[in-house]
Amino acid sequence: MVFIAPGADVSPDAAIGEGTKVWHLAQVREHAQIGVDCIIGRGAYVGTGVQLGDNCKLQNYALVYEPALLGDGVFIGPAVVLTNDTYPRAVTPNGSLKDAHDWTPVGVTIQEGASVGARAVCIAPVTIGRWATVAAGAVVTKDVPDFALVAGVPARRIRWVGKAGVPLELTDDRWKCPVTGDLYVEVDGVLTEA
Fold it and tell me: Over the Cα atoms of the chain, what is R_g?
C-alpha cells in the first residue's frame, strides 16, 4: 500500500511503488517513477520524469530535478540539491523570460547504494558511483567513482568506503571493511570488490 500524507502534492501521472511513503508538503511531479518501499520526506521535490529505484530515501527538503536517475538503495540527505541546468538563466539574451523550450535539462545519476549527505549539491551532469558517499556540504562537479568518499568544495576523494558506509582500512595489499569484513582491491584509482 502507498501512503501519501495530507498536504503532499503527487501527480496522478506519477508511478509510485508499493510500500512507498510520501510525507507532508512533498511534491512528486508528473511521469516521475518511484520504486517500492521508498521514503519521500517532508517538503522534498521529485521533478518531472525523475526515476528512483527501490528502497530509496529522500530526506526532508531534498530537491531532485529532472532528469535525475537514482538506483536502488540510494540515500539523499536533508536539503540536498541535484541540479539540471548547465547554464542557468532566468531570461534569454533578448531579456524575455525563459521557458521549457529555451534550455535542455541535464541530469544527475546516482548508482546503487550511494549516499549524498545533508546540503550537498551535485552539479549536473555528474554520476555518483555504486556505494559511494558524498559528505555533507560537498559540491560535486565531477563524476564520483564506486566506493569513493568525497568531501569539500569542489568535492575530492578523501577515502574509500564499503557497503556499510564506513571508511575502509588498508591491510597488506587490500582494503577491508571493519564492519562486514568484505575485501576490496584498488587498481589504478579504481576500487572493486575482491
Answer: 18
Q: Which residues pair with 127 in a beta bridge?
A: 109
Q: What is the pLDDT of residue 101?
A: 86
Q: Domains in the chain, start-ordered, CATH in brackets?
A: 3-161 (2.160.10.10), 163-194 (no CATH)
pLDDT computed for residue 100 by the predictor: 84
Write out the chain in H/E/C secondary structure.
Answer: CCEECCCCEECCCCEECCCCEECCCCEECCCCEECCCCEECCCCEECCCCEECCCCEECCCCEECCCCEECCCCEECCCCEECCCCCCCCECCCCCECCHHHCCCCCCEECCCCEECCCCEECCCCEECCCCEECCCCEECCCECCCEEEECCCCEEEEEECCCCCECEEECCEEECCCCCCEEEEECCEEEEC
pLDDT digit string, tens, across residues 28-72 = 999 999 999 999 999 999 999 999 999 999 999 999 999 999 999
The 10 Å Cβ neighbour count of residue 85 is: 14
Alpha-carbon gap, residue 134 to 63, rounded angstroms: 16
How far is 130 from 20, CA to CA, in rounded Å? Answer: 22
Give the distance from CA 190 to its chain's centroid. Answer: 21
Q: Are 121 and 151 in contact (CB under 8 A)?
A: no
Rounded Cα gap, residues 126 and 148, in angstroms: 14
